[in-house]
Structures are given as structure tokens and as C-alpha cells.
Amino acid sequence: MIMNEPDSKRIWSEYQKEIADDHYFYVRSCIRQSFFPGSEQFFLKMMREILRKDVYENPSHTTCTGIGYHTDIVPFETIMTVIARHFALMKEAGYKNIAISCVTSFGIYTEIIETWKHFPDTLEKTREYLFKATGREFDVPENMAHTSDIVYKFRNEIASMAKYRLVNRHTGKPLRVVEHIGCHYSKMFPKYGVGGAEFPKVLSGMIEAWGGEVVDYPERRHCCGFGFRQYIVQANRGYSLSNSIKKFESMKPYRPDFIITNCPGCNMFMDRWQYTIREMEGRTYGENGLSIPVLTYEEVAGLVLGINPWELGLQYHMVQPEPLIDKMGIEYSHSDKFITKDGRPLPEPGKLINV
Amino acid sequence: MESLYNQLLKDVRFEEGLNACMNCGVCTAICPAAEFYNYDPRKIVDEVQEKNDDTIEALLKSDTIWYCGECMSCKTRCPRGNTPGLIIMALRTLSQKLGYFTESEKGRQQLAIKRSVGENIFKYGYCVAAYAVDPEKHPEQGPIWNFIIDHSREIYERFGGRIDEEGEGPLRKIPADAKEELHRIFDVTGGTEFMKNIEKHSQRKAKELGIQIDSGLDDEYFIRVYTENNGTHTHNKTE
Q: Could you tell me which residues are beta bridge partners of residue A258?
């Protein structure tokens, strides 16, 4: 049966998400700041200096304890109260829109807010706990966005300022891009993600707006394999590696030019496991024996806007980006790749991939 | 004593995660853990909904409940609105409260997680921080990680980083009063007690097994639980 127009509009409206336009309370990610510090810094710079938005960061904001929660050493009551403290810091600073830089955190915020709705006594208990522990009070945010939602919201503005596009300058064809959303973005509570769990648009929308082509492949929605305890404990890492390999094997025939990720953990795993499998078995997943560069959405936005790749921190992945940035026609110099803030050269790290 | 099933019911995640399972197996089909481990979330949900305490106790003492990666892919797919991943989280919490986690190889690993991720939270105010990811324990991080750790101050500084300094920026030092608040939240909500309990039961188990245990990341028991893999957990799959 063909849906009539109002039905179709109603159904698709369920996959839309309200994303605040300005005035964000920004919460960092333990993993993103450790492994991709340039991504978070560029996000803030882009928001404040290019898009002219107000983004506030409170240095007293701590871990959300999410990795501890999903490795089952932090009780639910505890993490609910830690999150409530973040909301209290937001309230005290006069903000109502939260911008979260981590998919694990984002999933936790969604789970907690939904729990408070389904079990109102847990919200009251959390208020009591927080007040008892800190004397603080909180409000639930009016708007909650993952930072990629915000980049998605402004994707067309970014496209209008683009210096480079996701196009292969040698062939003139769009670059083929694998997008990886990260399970906790919308598999738990689809309504919080752009496009829900079935049709996540958050990254594919960016790719299309910036000139690239989205690769659809069989294991597109499979987990990267983090599995929390399955990576953190050395004895379990075969789980993590095996699930990444399942994805790489599935995407390889589609010859992706790069992978863009939503979640900092997924990014780190898809980068590092390519190194590991290459070391262990000599297998690679890119063209001509190369590996596939894995970029955060902030890094991709930065390249599109013409930011120096080394100021974005692209050199601090295991899989180096040169094959990709050459295809995009980006100008760069090797001389400022490994330098300090004030321009002093650092030694050259050895055994990186794709160089 | 209150039945194990009733103890599980006190966890809102259990109440939310278990409605009525019709054994369709979609969760197992989608599950990344079932792909490689001897793991079947359908079977676990079915066993739990039988409300038989002997069965639940066996689960709480088994490796089985520790195979899930908490990706929550099962939540999206269950046609009855169950979430096997949430049931697993409730089982793991109860297993640790009762000290049953020390009865399985995978369960004993909770001590390694408590002493690494758990103690990072109190020490640094972060679950994970670059300086707490030891390249020797993480060979898969590759040579770039050794390089970053060897030159961390200069590298993070280029991106606005502030290792050991307060203020905005990546890896900023969390102020002492904020860490103190975090501590009090753990005290008030039972988080501190929960972690102490993991330590207490692990100490008991180490003594029972005659393995040296201390309080750091390098005693014999820690290394054992962090690295031991008896090789019976996965399918014997050929490609």
C-alpha cells in the first residue's frame, strides 16, 4: 500500500530531532580528549569563531563515569547522580542546552532521562542524593544534542564556506565514505538521534552536504567491537578485534576512501585494530595495500573548511591521512606535522601506517 | 532470604528490560557477543523469566553473564520491547553484590576493571585519561601511542591541552573540590561500598586460590584476572 502524504510526513517526523541553535553547555569526552584532542578543540573553535555561537565549558565538569557504568563497577544510582551534578553546573551557569562530545555519555544521558520519566521516584531520589552530596540542585536540559548533531545542523553553512569538498580531484568523483554511528547514539532510544536507529542521518547528512558518497555495506550497523570490558581487560580483546574485522571485511569490497565516526571510542578502535591486524596477519583493508583513514566528524569538517590537517591532530592516528588529503587536493607541508605549539620540531615517530 | 528474582526486580533496569520473552531469538541474531562467544541472550532471558533461584544463582556464578558487550543492539530489535542487555546489567550488579562474580574467570575480571577504570575516576576525575593508558598494557595502540605518551605535554599543548593544569581544555586537571564532590556522590549513592565489595570478595577468592594479592596493578591476582583466558569461551569457528 502506498502511504498518503500526511502518513508519510507523520512517520518521517518521528525521525527528526530538535537541535538547539545556540547557547550550549559543552561536556568533554574522556576518550575524545585523550585520543583526538584536536577534534574537540576544533569543534569549539568552529562553533565560536566560524559559526559565532556561544559555547560554555565549565572546567569543574568531570567524567560522566560511563565507562565505569558499562563495565558494571559503577551503580546506576551513582551515575544518575554524577549526571545530575553536570546538570546542576549547567543550571548554575544559566544554560538549558547541553552539547555532549561522546556517544557513550550521550547514551547514558538518554538512558537516565528516560529512566526518570518511566520511574519518577528515581528522579526524586537522585535530587536527594545530589543535594546531600553537594548541596546542588538541577534541572533536566531543555535540549540535548550530541556534538555531531550540531555539526549536522550547520552542515550546509559549513558547505557554503568549504575550501575543499569530499571529491577525488583526480577523477572528479565523490569520495566513497563509510559512516559509523556508534551503537549508543540511537540504538537504545532512537528518538534522540537524527534519523533514529533505522535511518541515522547524522553523518550521512554531512557526507552528502560536503560532496561525498555514502557507502552502504552489509555490516554498516554492526558494533565496532568496543564492548567495554571486552576491550578494557586484556584477556577479552579478541572480542573487540573480531567484531572490527567483521566490519572491515564487509566494507572492503566497496573500496572506501575513508571512515567517518560519530563516537570517539569507535574511531580509536577502527584505527588501532587496522594496525593490529596488519601486524598480526599482514591484512589491510584499503586500496593498494594501504589502510583506511578513520576520521572524526570534527576532523572532516576541519578539512572541508581548509584547516591545516596537522592543527586538527590527524597525525596522531595510527593510520595516517596523506592518501585521503592528497585525493582531496589539500595543501600541506610535512615540516609542521610533528611540532610543538611554539613550532619546535619533535622527533619523527616510527612505523606509522600509510606513509 | 529474599528470592534472587525479587532482588533482581528491585533494579529498575531489570523491570524495564524484561517484559515477556517469546523466544524468537532476534537478540541472538543481532548480538556481537553471540557472534564469537558461546553466548545466547535469548537463552539467558528465557532462563531468568522462569524465576527459578537455582538457575539464576548458576547464572550469577557463570562466565555467561560477562560475555555481553553492552552495545544494546538488542534493545532496538526486540519485538516485545525487552532489553537483554539491561537484564545482563542487573545480573552483573547482583552477582557483584553477592560476591558470586569471583566464581567465574570472566567475573573475576571485575577486580581489574575496578582497580583501573574505577580508581582513575577518583584519582583523575576521568574514567580514561591518556596518561593512564599504559603502552605496555596496550600494545594494540601501536607506536603512535608510545610517541604520544613520550611527548604528551608538548603534543596536547598544541591542541589547547592542560595536563596538570586547571582551566578549560583537553586533559585539564580536575579541581580538587570537584573530585571531592565526585567522591561524596559515590559515598552517598553506594558507589564506594560497591567497589569495596569487589575488592573484599576478590581478596577472599585470592586467598582461597592461594594467589598473592595486594592493592595495585601488578600483584599476581591482578595480572591473573587481567590476562587469563582458558580458551573455552568462543566458538571453534573456521572461516
A: A177
Nearest to B144 among A119, A233, A316 (CB): A316
Whether chain A has a CB inside 8 Å of the CB on B149: the answer is no
CATH of domain A154-328: 3.40.50.11810
pTM for this prediction: 0.96
Amino acid occupying residue B201: H
The answer to whether A261 and A226 are in contact (CB under 8 A) is: no
ipTM of the complex, rounded to two decimals? 0.97
pLDDT one-digit tens code per residue, A119-176? 999 999 999 999 999 999 999 999 999 999 999 999 999 999 999 999 999 999 999 9
Please name each of the domains of chain B with its CATH number.
4-98 (1.10.1060.10), 103-126+175-239 (no CATH), 137-173 (no CATH)
Identify the H or E element spanning A256. none
Q: pLDDT tens digits, residue range A249-271?
A: 999 999 999 999 999 999 999 99
List the strands of the sheet with A176-180, edge to edge.
A213-214, A176-180, A258-261, A294-296
CB B173 within 8 A of CB B120: no
To test the contact with chain B by mutation, choose from A27, A28, A32, A33 the residue with the greatest count of B C-beta atoms within 10 A, namely A33
Each domain of chain A, given as residue ranges in start order, spans 24-147, 154-328
Give me the CATH code for the A24-147 domain, please: 1.20.1050.140
- Measure the CA–CA gap between A5 and A219, rounded to whole angstroms: 32
CA distances, A222 to each of A187, A240, A292, B88 (Å): 11, 12, 18, 20
Count of CB atoms situated within 10 Å of the CB of B151: 16
The closest CB to that of A235, out of B185, B198, B228, belongs to B228
